[in-house]
Amino acid sequence: MQASGIVRCSHGSAIASGIVRCSQGDWIVGYGHNIGVSSILEVELRAIVDGLETVWEKGVRQLLIASDSMTAIDLILGAKVVGLPRLASEVCNWISRDWQVDWRFDM
């Protein structure tokens, strides 16, 4: 799953989006929506949450998440759940389900 976010500074609106591919690289599903005014970190986390929900509903139980936000990945994997931003806590709740989730930083 490739999760990403776009923030348009001139408009102040943000889009959380991503794509899901199978292990051979074939497209399975894309997702995205306008989430309004948000920080870059919020957009990245929303894209991850939306992607996790999307792939769970598709029955995927083994997942590699690629993100270009090392801050988001570090926040999710390295921080304690107490005191996390709400969206990071949502990601932690999703990845604690019965599936295998691995992470990759894509610059």
From TrEMBL:
InterPro entries: RNase_H-like (IPR053151), RNase_H-like_dom_plant (IPR044730), RNaseH-like_sf (IPR012337), RNaseH_domain (IPR002156), RNaseH_sf (IPR036397). Residues 5-105 form the RNase H type-1 domain. This is RNase H type-1 domain-containing protein. GO terms for molecular function: nucleic acid binding; RNA-DNA hybrid ribonuclease activity. Pfam families: RVT_3 (PF13456). CDD domains: RNase_H_like.
